[in-house]
Design brief:
Blueprint: H1 3-17, E1 24-26, E2 45-54, E3 77-84, H2 90-109, E4 112-122, E5 125-136, H3 140-150, E6 157-165
Parallel strand pairs: 1-2
Antiparallel strand pairs: 2-3, 3-6, 4-5, 5-6
Protein name: DUF4255 domain-containing protein
Domain Pvc16 N-terminal: 10-169
InterPro entries: Pvc16_N
């Protein structure tokens, strides 16, 4: 499964459940400081991939092999995704805060969800991948460093760690 497909699934899933009918858009937060028109988005939330890292203790392990010889090897990667509200007007700012609160509640209620991998149709069986999402709490200093390396001014936001789970680990 492609990273872009995972991000799209997360955004689509949230958009279908948000009570405020507000949309989450996928975009590069670093572009905000360079493009003033970007701040005029009608969506109060931007989803941005901020880091991809490898889990060292899983480096030499692979997911189960299938009869066609294909293996899935994203299980040792962790993605950091940031939900941020770029809204600057007073009413829009509060709408963005409310949308962040809904996202936090959504992932508290559903920390694991399942996506279908359209790229892996092996022997006419659909491959389903479970994804775990966990909030990352940053200290003030870490938060400052994150926004500095993004090249943006601070925005209300929440950071999550997204990782794929082995197929046998969770039954939904």
């Amino acid at each position: 499964m492609k990273i872009s497909e995972i991000l799209t699934k997360i955004a689509d899933d949230i958009n279908s459940k948000l009570q405020s009918q507000s949309a989450v858009v996928i975009a590069n937060l670093a572009a905000i400081s360079k493009d003033e028109e970007f701040l005029q988005l009608s969506s109060p939330i931007i989803l941005s991939l901020v880091n991809i890292e490898e889990v060292r203790n899983l480096k030499n392990k692979t997911s189960p092999s299938y009869s066609s010889g294909i293996t899935q090897n994203f299980s040792n990667l962790v993605f950091s995704v940031l939900f941020a509200s770029p809204m600057i007007k007073s009413a829009d700012y509060l709408e963005g805060i409310d949308a962040l609160e809904e996202i936090i509640q959504y992932f508290k209620d559903k920390p694991i969800f399942q996506v279908q991998d359209s790229d892996l149709l092996i022997n006419e069986l659909n491959f389903n991948q479970k994804i775990a999402i966990e909030m990352i709490s940053l200290s003030t200093e870490e938060l400052h460093h994150m926004w500095s390396y993004l090249g943006c001014y601070y925005m209300p936001s929440v950071l999550y760690k997204v990782r794929m789970l082995p197929n046998e680990s969770v039954n939904l």
